[in-house]
Amino acid sequence: MRSSTVERKDEAGSSLVEVTVAMVVLTLAMVPVVGVLEAGHRAATSSGEYDAARALAGSELEEARALPYHRPGGAADSAVERYAPPGPPGVTVDGFALSVRTAFVSGELSGTAGSPTGQMRMDVLVEWEGDRSYSTTGFVSGRPP
């Protein structure tokens, strides 16, 4: 007669210890993945801010270049009057600090403190987050007044 209890040697399954060890291993493997994802997010955000700062600086230069260099009577819609050296006061645009420094330049493109010569150098600086910045330089030219 056979015994009603049969020992099975081929039982499949995992013990509580094996499951716990597997969970610990998976958790330790996920920590670097989370770090990589966080670094990727920071890089994407930083890149977006840099692009926005670059676009803002370029927009400021293009705005000055679109203006006539000089209009008789000191019209405020000319580059010489609107951006007269040392430049307009700094402003804040969408969380970016924008400042423009200008100087009239001589034929050799060296800065002078004198009257307009038909060329004006513009240094545009955009700052954000206290320690991040982007700067660009451009020239506006036309007939001197």
TrEMBL record:
It comes from Rubrobacter tropicus. This is Pilus assembly protein. The chain crosses the membrane at residues 12-37. Keywords: Membrane, Transmembrane, Transmembrane helix.
